[in-house]
Amino acid sequence: MDLLLTTGTSATASASTGGQTGPVTLVALYPGPALRLDSALAVAESNAEAEDMMDSDPRWLPELRNWLSASSVAPGLRSVPVESLRGIMIVEWAGVPLPDGGFLLLGRDDTLERQLRHTLTESRRRYKDLVEVSSDFAWETGPDGTFVFVSHKGALGYPADALIGRDPRSLALEEAEDLPMPFDCRRAIDQTELWLKSADGTPACVVASALPLFGTQGDWIGARGVCRDVTEQVLRSNELARIRNRERLLGHIVHTLRDRLDAAEALAVAATETARALSADGCRIYRAEEGAAGGNGGGRVVLSLVAEFGAKLPEVGTALLDRIANNEGLVTDRLGDVQLIGERTEYRQAANGALLVWRTGDSEPWDEDDRHLMSGVADHIGIAHAHLAYQERLRRLSERDGLTGLFNRRTFFERLEESISRPDSGPSALLYVDLDNFKAVNDLHGHQQGDAVLKAIGTLLSTGVRPGDLPGRLGGDEFVLWLGRTDEAKARIVAERLLNGMRDLAHLSASPEKPLGLSIGIAVHTPGRGESVRELTDRSDAAMYDAKKSGKGHFALAPAYQAAAQASSSDVSPAEPIP
């Protein structure tokens, strides 16, 4: 009775069924929509949910009738869309034949399940599409560690089929075969960079992320992950890093050259820094000799060493230096176990020197970075050479007489002061030289002829001088010649040579009656006696006037220096004139 009351079924109905629950009761009890159709497929019974569905959308029932009428046996399952207040819902119906020829229809709301299934399908399709269009390649390895899946594009130049069943360690570079790899990972890894071997044998850099796979018993059954080929990015990054490093090293060398006022010192430091920047064992900087620099079509460039750093280098022949100086570009060579690389230096397209760097032993060969850095350094060394030449020209202009090329008055006395201040210099001699009859040349032939005479005297004084000797012009027609480490006898020989040299200049005289000549005063300086430059000059000047008083064309020797009182000019001993 409780069941009949619960379903709202009459007692007569219950008695007719012998007290058993029949179709009417099942329709009422079913948690979803339910219908009982008679043999004519008319609705005999329906529960509340089915009635709501028929009220909101009667179109689904005819579709079910067509389905049932076409079924010769148990119809099975049928899904139909039903429009409801909540929107379109999908109801899956199960048709059960009844003994009276009718059907029992039991429905189930399949909307959510279908949506979930559809979402899952879409998710899988989306994942598949994204994997296929991405630059990454997805993979999975099995319990034996070999590939069981690789995305259809393949990887590293291999088609996917060529990788299935292959051990991933066969893709490792020889030096990395024993290193951990993501393909057999036992824990999750993220963005790990490793180098593998491409199909063509070239190294390839990939970034891998992977998850290990475990069975129900906790045993490892493989791994799954993705790899992204970043070879081009890494190479570009490495190249950018090399360029930046090269610029940093070059900038350091350039600052070294610019920060030092003395160009010769800057070249010496640049040789050191260039060797260090190139990881070389040594460096030499050569400079074109004065007047030997050549341009595009110029003559042979003669080089001289101006700066050196590092290990001893075997003798470098002129043939190699000529190749470097006269070749536009880098020159490489070997001397035994020494690797050489050289490049000429230029300024305004004219060769003005060379840069030579070397490595010894089993050093690495020169690479492109070395070559680029070498060329950059050579460019700035060429500018430094030009700067040094400019400094030397300025120094010459400040130190030399513009007409004769001899030391000017200021520079001569500065250097003379340095020379006589050395206690170990030994006896030396100062020759004070004055031209005879020079004024007549200017008066009769003009200053152009006079300048030619002065230039000729400058050549005469500077010919045959030794390192340390100082020829100078004090002004007008007065000249001086300092002879270091020279005693009285040698000073007389030099004076006689100068007087004899005037014979070759006779054609520049104003007239036979007024021949050009020299009056020379000699003062021998002995270190340690306290004689100053002024006192030494006065002694030689006085001796010159005494020689001139003797008839010109003579030299005279000044008496020895006396600290208490200078010897009188009457004590000067004039020499015989040169016939």
From TrEMBL:
- What SUPFAM superfamilies does UniProt report for this protein, alphabetically? GAF domain-like (SSF55781), Nucleotide cyclase (SSF55073), PYP-like sensor domain (PAS domain) (SSF55785)
Where in this chain does the record put each GGDEF domain? 426-560
**PAC domain location:** 190-242
Q: InterPro entries annotated for this entry?
A: Biofilm_reg_signaling, GAF-like_dom_sf, GGDEF_dom, Nucleotide_cyclase, PAS, PAS-assoc_C, PAS-like_dom_sf, PAS_4
Q: Name one Pfam family in it.
A: PAS_4
Query: Can you say what this protein is called?
Result: Diguanylate cyclase
